[in-house]
Amino acid sequence: MDQIFNSSEKRLARTLLLMAEFGRADEAKTMIPPITQETLAEMVGTTRSRVSFFMNRFRDLGLISYNGRIHVHKSRLKAALTEEWPLYDSGTLQQVA
């Protein structure tokens, strides 16, 4: 059902947030365990190339940062999942008016 009603981008964001929730609740930014994009793709039900695209987009939007390991900015990612984050055009990352 999740794959029918939710985009792979939203499923990836939710997966990253779930992985980050295993950290301390009071941390604004949590480092998740080492994981490959291929494994994330299998968990989400999409391709590795789509995960790479979304991860770069999340990084550009300030939802995550990574340099070897993924750091999830939990409050920002939660806001994006609840659609409190400004809408962006999927192709250009330009804010939609």
Provide a quick synopsis of the model:
This protein is mainly alpha-helical and 97 residues long. It has helices at residues 2-5, 8-20, 37-44, 48-60, 74-81, and strands at residues 29-31, 64-66, 70-73.
Description:
The protein has helices spanning 2-5, 8-20, 37-44, 48-60, 74-81, and strands at 29-31, 64-66, 70-73. By secondary structure, the chain is mostly helical. Strand 2 (64-66) and strand 3 (70-73) form a beta hairpin. Helix 2 (8-20) crosses helix 3 (37-44) and helix 3 crosses helix 4. The model has no long low-confidence stretch (mean pLDDT 80).
Give average pLDDT, whole number: 80
- The topology string of helices and strands comes to HHEHHEEH
User: How many distinct helices?
Assistant: 5
Q: How large, in whole angstroms, is the Cα Rg?
A: 13 Å
* DSSP strand count: 3
Stretches with pLDDT under 50, minimum 5 residues: none
Strand order of the largest sheet: 1-3-2
The amount of helix comes to 40-55%
Structural class: mainly alpha
Name the beta content range: 5-15%
Major sheet attributes: 3 strands, antiparallel
* Shape by Cα distribution: globular
Give the termini distance in whole angstroms: 31 Å
